[in-house]
Amino acid sequence: MDPKYQRVELNDGHFMPVLGFGTYAPPEVPRNRAVEVTKLAIEAGFRHIDSAYLYNNEEQVGLAIRSKIADGSVKREDIFYTSKLWCTFFQPQMVQPALESSLKKLQLDYVDLYLLHFPMALQPGETPLPKDENGKVIFDTVDLCAIWEVSAWRTEHRKGRQEEVMEKCKDAGLAKSIGVSNFNRRQLEMILNKPGLKYKPVCNQVECHPYLNQSKLLDFCKSKDIVLVAHSALGTQRHELWVDPKSPVLLEDPVLCALAKKHKRTPALIALRYQLQRGVVVLAKSYNEQRIRENVQVFEFQLTSEDMKVLDGLNRNYRYVVMDFLMDHPDYPFSDEY
Ligand code: NAP
Ligand code: WDW
């Protein structure tokens, strides 16, 4: 089998390709670029594609996927597509309609994976970051477990009137698998420990790179058969909307550069390979043809255990995407150690 198509088995029996294509681009990038680059990514060998309601590109990404299916390059079942439920749709009755509206934009029958994008609810509605007159984001409170599960109580006493929550989306076949993103250990445990849990999250997608290697969260996830998926694995796009411009530039790190030289690869490839060898599924965003093609070379070389130790030594618990404007929400995930 082509090593490019390496996949990991999820705790629900489905398989996830270990290298994923990140599709987020900031608002100033013309939307149609997502069609071109997603096609290029599939042509280069990516089979896992990561998007979200929030990225405002599902129409374009769906079009690209369907066009690669139509031209015979891939079949639907070869592609692993992830979408995410945004925080303004965290009322239980909004969950399935939100997924259906993503599917309609995508013109697909199902997503492979549907994630809770971030573990805190915002004021319900179409505005992604609802703000009050003082510019403060308007929070909402929802029990995270209530959006997740078809609880034993509901199943028993209200047959046929189950709320349209994440587990229901899986039962309805609209999402093959369900998972979470940006959850800390405590928030994961809240879901895992809920009585009547029907499906565990298959993954937790979190920021993860050599400066924030998430080793504790990774150990915890592995112990629960939950895959850790790394976003921002190349150190983010450094866009001022999300990231402090004074933050260190990951891909200029001297140790990454030295390892790149040693292996005759690039710092980006070292950062991606690092994740695969520690059992992390890794996302890589690029809107550049050369770099999209470069990133699939992650399957062409190996780091030694010495290299891996050196990379582990780069950790400094440095988080690029802090979302400090959400810090006073009771469910803000990044106050706990991990
Ligand atoms: P990233 O994967 O960390 O990449 C950062 C930058 O690296 C890109 O802008 C890209 O620029 C550059 N790059 C890519 N390949 C390269 C190479 N071979 N050599 C040198 N530079 C290279 O970016 P990200 O978008 O922050 O994260 C990846 C994906 O994770 C996102 O697109 C999104 O799908 C997901 N994500 C999810 C969350 C969440 O909350 N769940 C948060 C953040 C991200 P060029 O385009 O110019 O190549
Ligand atoms: C919470 C979680 C916003 C945006 C966002 C809040 C979030 C993302 C780079 C790539 C997100 C940063 C894509 C923005 C409030 N996650 N992206 O996925």
Count of individual helical segments: 12
Shape descriptor reads globular
Report the bound ligands by name, code or SMILES: NADP nicotinamide-adenine-dinucleotide phosphate, 3,6-dihydropyridin-1(2H)-yl(5-methyl-1H-indol-2-yl)methanone
Rg, alpha carbons: 19 Å
* Beta-strand fraction estimate: 5-15%
Could you name the ranges where pLDDT drops below 50 across 5 or more consecutive residues? none
Spatial separation of the terminal alpha carbons: 37 Å
Order of helices and strands: EEEHEHEHEHHHEHEHEHHEHH
**Residue-averaged pLDDT:** 95
Q: Largest sheet, if any?
A: 8 strands, parallel, barrel
Strands side by side in the biggest sheet: 3-4-5-6-7-8-9-10
Distinctive features:
single chain; eight-stranded parallel barrel; binds NADP nicotinamide-adenine-dinucleotide phosphate; binds 3,6-dihydropyridin-1(2H)-yl(5-methyl-1H-indol-2-yl)methanone
Structure, briefly:
This protein has 338 residues and is α/β, with parallel strands linked by helices.
